[in-house]
Structures are given as structure tokens and as C-alpha cells.
Amino acid sequence: DAKTTQPTSMDCAEGRAANLPCNHSTISGNEYVYWYRQIHSQGPQYIIHGLKNNETNEMASLIITEDRKSSTLILPHATLRDTAVYYCIAFLSGGYQKVTFGTGTKLQVIP
Amino acid sequence: DVKVTQSSRYLVKRTGEKVFLECVQDMDHENMFWYRQDPGLGLRLIYFSYDVKMKEKGDIPEGYSVSREKKERFSLILESASTNQTSMYLCASSRGGRGSYEQYFGPGTRLTVT
């Protein structure tokens, strides 16, 4: 699995877009980029994933650069409930899904 | 609704005790995982299982074993608990086979070994 690098922490004003970057410069062609978040005292929750194209769902948007070496998770209108640790991970599709989570980015949404 | 449940939310055990952490999923998932989470270290994979009776070591398997006798249940066993196994333990499951599938996590068990 490709190693990912994320900033340790970020702040975002409530109502503004939160843009969380992730570097995965060693990602291979068939490794997906996944994003999860973990709200305090709960298990991680899946947000979104993508391979090459940008993706959007009801929670967030995922922008993957053309060379796939980095990506950005966008929360379009951050709320206080979005305060959490966000994990970016990359792993191969198919077969055994051994996944390694790093330490993630602690996002603090400020009123 | 997708559901992964863990047998206890909080557990206190003594050093040397044998500890069982149970995880059950109701989604007919092939893959199941056990992680531990410690401050500053993120989530670290202990073991995972891709089928009944099948298991693979993760990044930190020492001091742990697992059992998967039924598809829906994955147990983590601490044969002789030690204080350095005090941690939050998280179970997860996902679909198997070809393709890329998200993991669903349980609420976690906070284990304290005294």
C-alpha cells in the first residue's frame, strides 16, 4: 500500500469549505484513495473514495490530481459536527484488503 | 442498516488474564479486521481475516491471536494481558473479492489492563 502524508491539524470556520490535503506520491495505478473520518469516541466512518476521477457524494467531494500523487477532500460547508480526525489511505483493489491507517488530520471547525 | 457490534464498550482486566474481544457483523462480509488505536500512533492493524478460519497477521500481531469460526464473528484474544495492551480496540468488516470496498467499523472497546 502506498504511504500517505497528511497535515497533523487544520482549522476551518463554520460554514466555510474545508479542504483537507493528502500526499500519496508513491501510489500505484490500481490503488484507490479512500477517506474516512473519526469523531471522538466513535469508530471511523467511510466518507468517499476514488481511483482517477473526481468524486462527489452527499458528504464530500474528492479531487485527485491528474498524476494521482495527491488528493484533496472537500467538505463544502463545514459544521461543528465535522470536527473529527480525517484519514486518507491508499490501497490495492481486490484480493486481501490489508489497510494501513496513519495518524490523519485533526480538523477543528470553529464557530 | 450496516452494523458492526463489539461485545463491550469498556473492559478492565488484570495483568496475566486471558481476554476475549468479540466482534459481530450482520452484512455477510467476507473480510474482518482488528485494529488498536493509541494516541499519536493512529490505527494499527493487528490481524485480519478474509474468510472463515482464514487469518493474516497485520502490522502488530505480537501478543494477540484471533479466531473466526463463523463468517459473522471475529474474536481477538489476548492470551496473557499486559499493561502495554491497554488501548482502544476497533473491529471492522468489508466485502471481499475483486473490487474496492469500504470498511465498516464498530464503536470500539476501551480495554484497560491493570
- Whole-angstrom Rg of chain A: 13 Å
- How would you state the average pLDDT of chain B, rounded? 92
Note the quaternary state here.
Answer: heterodimer
Biggest sheet record of chain B: 7 strands, mixed
How far is it from the N-terminal to the C-terminal residue of chain A, by CA?
Answer: 37 Å
Contiguous uncertain segments of 5+ residues of chain B: none
Concise structural overview:
The complex is a heterodimer of chains A (111) and B (114). Chain A has 111 residues and is mainly beta.
Summarize the structure in words.
The complex is a heterodimer of chains A (111) and B (114). Chain A is an all-beta fold. Helices cover 0% and strands 47% of the residues of chain A. In chain A, a hairpin with a 5-residue loop joins β6 and β7 (70-75). The model of chain A has no long low-confidence stretch (mean pLDDT 90). Chain B is mostly beta strands and 114 residues long. Helix content of chain B is 0%, strand content 55%. Chain B contains no helices and 11 strands. In chain B, the strands form 2 sheets. In chain B, strands 2, 4, 5, 6, 9, 10 and 11 form a 7-stranded mixed β-sheet that branches. Chain B has a 4-stranded antiparallel β-sheet with strand order 1-3-8-7, with no helix packed on it. Chain B is globular, with a radius of gyration of 13 Å. The model of chain B has no long low-confidence stretch (mean pLDDT 92). Chains A and B meet through β3 and β4 of A and β4, β5, β9 and β10 of B.
SSE blueprint:
The complex is a heterodimer of chains A (111) and B (114).
Chain A: E1 9-13, E2 18-23, E3 31-38, E4 45-50, E5 55-56, E6 61-64, E7 70-75, E8 84-92, E9 105-110
Parallel strand pairs in A: 1-9
Antiparallel strand pairs in A: 2-7, 3-4, 3-8, 5-6, 6-7, 8-9
Chain B: E1 4-6, E2 10-13, E3 19-25, E4 31-38, E5 42-51, E6 54-57, E7 65-70, E8 73-78, E9 87-94, E10 104-105, E11 109-113
